[in-house]
Amino acid sequence: MPSLKEIKQRIDSVKSTRQVTSAMKMVSASKLQKAQQRILNARPYSDELDKILLSFATRTQRVVHPLLREVTHEDIKTIAIVVVTADKGLCGAFNMNIIKKAEKVIDKYNNKNIELICVGRKGRNYFKHKRFIIREEYIDFFNRLKFDHSRDVMNLTSSYFLEGRYDMVVMIYNEFKSVIQQNVVEKQLLPLEDLEETDDRFLSSFLFEPETTELLEELIKKHLDVQIWRMLLESSSAEQAARMTAMDSATDNADDMIKDLTLEYHHKRQDNITKEIIEVASTAEVIR
Question: Is the pTM higher than 0.70?
Answer without folding.
Answer: yes
